[in-house]
Design a protein that fits this description.
The protein is built from ten helices and 15 strands. By secondary structure, the chain is α/β, with parallel strands linked by helices. It binds NADP nicotinamide-adenine-dinucleotide phosphate (NAP) and guanosine-5'-diphosphate-alpha-D-mannose (GDD). The site of NADP nicotinamide-adenine-dinucleotide phosphate has 25 residues, from helix 1 and strand 5.
Length: 363
């Protein structure tokens, strides 16, 4: 039985990867951080399984990393932990650098210090944000990097330190340069999830309006569950190499809104430009989406489009056989429609109960 260690197991990708590795018969260990509210929603269904284990560790704390590496002695390490929000990296640049740049070094050096460099394979969650202010469209493994946020600059260090440890110490260490991937488990402040949750709430009368930033920003979006398969595949190759993983399609934030609201039963049309652009309900004329400067970034990456030819060729991973853009939007909206419906039902039960208590019908 192989042993895997996943940092960031409580995150979107970590939870899907843990499921995949458990299915493949791995002994799966994940790192979690101490917090005053225990947020383990994404992995709650895995806790208690005999081959699933959790350990406290923080990428900012070498001692916790060494301790967990020594205890688990993993065959494969998947470093998914990160301060992963680009906009937040402008507010917390130092923390982002510590976790997303130096944190990668701490793990790699920890593997060496624990004498695991020959045995342990290492996957680094790298990102299309490295292409940033893009110098070529679409982007592949040879496209020059031009990071355009504190997050991307930190991740660029992570990318290069992985390459350095591969070359200097002959470690099996690789980066997956993943384009945006989303799911029903996506954090609620990333644009796709923000849109699907708002569409569900607006459709069910729980929210008036959605405020967004740059509607023209272009992304190459895929489904996270499909993308974690590649992380595993990248570590099963004969030689360690880096791969671009992408859908090979590009859509705007505006396109995402149109499809998401349609799935929630609302036909939208956009009118106006820039900060004055509005998303309007075609049937009622109500303004449902407005643009707010608050969601603009000091520097924004606006033209991501991946070329996954190498992954197709070498890994046999073909995005055309995976979840399509429209299917992705539908999965996310359907999940949020159900979530909002359950919340509403809960509220109704509470209201009824209060009324019955007041009237003395129940005591
Ligand atoms: P996510 O949902 O934000 O999950 C991030 C994980 O990192 C969480 O488990 C979080 O723990 C953990 N973490 C944060 N700071 C940490 C620290 N100091 N020490 C230990 N753990 C820490 O992100 P994701 O979407 O799953 O992405 C996974 C990785 O892929 C990230 O490295 C991200 O930068 C990268 N990536 C993502 C995409 C994408 O589109 N999703 C694309 C390219 C690359 P808490 O739960 O305690 O916060
Ligand atoms: N979050 C957010 N909120 N983004 C908005 C909004 C809004 O209200 N309005 C427009 N956008 C635009 C952003 O300006 C950006 O151009 C685009 O939507 C996508 O933003 P996010 O969903 O926050 O994702 P991201 O592309 O910045 O970063 C994600 O993908 C990277 C891979 O390219 C994260 O998962 C990163 O961790 C990952 O590396």
């Amino acid at each position: 039985m192989k042993t895997a260690l996943i940092t960031g197991v409580t995150g979107q990708d970590g939870s899907f990867l843990a499921e995949l590795l458990l299915e493949k018969g791995y002994d799966v260990h994940g790192t979690i951080r101490r917090s005053s509210v225990d947020f383990r929603e994404r992995i709650a269904h895995l806790e208690g399984k005999p081959n699933f284990h959790l350990h406290y560790a923080d990428l900012g704390d070498s001692m916790s990393i060494i301790q967990v590496l020594n205890k688990v002695k993993p065959d494969e390490v998947y470093n998914l932990a990160a301060q992963s929000h680009v906009q937040v990296s402008f507010d917390s640049p130092e923390f982002t650098a510590d976790v997303d740049a130096t944190g990668v070094l701490r793990l790699l050096e920890g593997i060496r210090q624990c004498g695991l460099a020959d045995k342990c394979r290492f996957y680094q969650a790298s990102t299309s944000e490295l292409y940033g202010k893009v110098e070529e469209v679409p982007q592949n493994e040879d496209t020059p990097f031009h990071p355009y946020s504190p997050y991307a600059v930190a991740k660029l260090y992570g990318f290069w330190i992985v390459k350095e440890y591969r070359e200097a110490y002959n470690m099996y260490a690789c980066s997956g340069i993943l384009f945006n991937h989303e799911s029903e488990r996506r954090g609620e402040t990333f644009v796709t999830r923000k849109i699907t949750l708002a569409a569900a709430r607006i459709a069910q009368g729980k929210q008036e309006k959605l405020y967004l930033g740059n509607l023209s920003s272009l992304r190459d979006w895929g489904y996270a569950k499909d993308y974690v398969e590649c992380m595993w595949q990248i570590l099963q190759q004969e030689k360690p190499e880096d791969f671009v993983i992408a859908s090979g399609e590009q859509h705007s934030v505006r396109d995402f809104c149109l499809l998401a609201f349609r799935r929630a039963g609302i036909e939208l049309e956009f009118k106006g430009e820039g900060i004055d652009e509005k998303g309007i309900d075609k049937n009622t004329g109500r303004i449902l989406i407005e643009v707010s400067k608050d969601f603009y970034r000091p520097t924004d990456v606006v033209n991501l489009w991946g070329d996954p030819s190498k992954a197709k060729r070498q890994l046999g991973w073909n995005p055309n056989e995976k979840t399509s853009f429209e299917q992705l939007v539908n999965i996310m909206v359907d999940a949020d429609m159900a979530k909002v419906a359950v919340e509403r039902a809960g509220e109704q039960v509470r209201t009824n109960l209060e009324e019955y208590l007041e009237k003395g019908i129940v005591k």
